Fold this protein.
Amino acid sequence: MGYQFDRRGFMIIPDPREYRRTKEEQKQKCVVATEAYCPNGHNLIDDYVNFNGFGGIKLKIRRPNGEEGFMVLSPIFGDKTVVYIGTKPADGEKLEVFCPECGTAIPVLKPCDECTGGELRVLSVEPKFTVSDGIAFCDLVGCPSAYIISAGELIERAYIEGLE
């Protein structure tokens, strides 16, 4: 999940028919993180990797073997795509996650309920860091957990879909 190549080494190319909707239609029908901040106020949205016209959330990572690289999360809520740059972690690896600008560790919100051993890391949607309004994601490779936090409450995808 989220890799550029399959296990045989072939490049995975998305089906363009899935992305024929215009950017405006995408914006109207999905929740997109346009800002995500580290504890020191650095905006983590980066256009280096693009998800349907939206910049991704770029984070520095360290694997258990000490190898470092970057992961870019899709800013589109419900899209579990992750692009890894400079490293290729295996499913089930627990990653250390940092701000690519200042190297500050991304704080842990709580243990993940969806997997064993993973923790939900939290990013703020405000420059002045707060965990009461933000984005949470699991640091275990392959775990699909992702949440929007509003007024201190975890909002799951099912709730967001109910609003549409």
Remarks:
- The chain has a mean pLDDT of 81.
- Helices lie at 23-29, 157-163.
- The chain has one domain: 38-163.
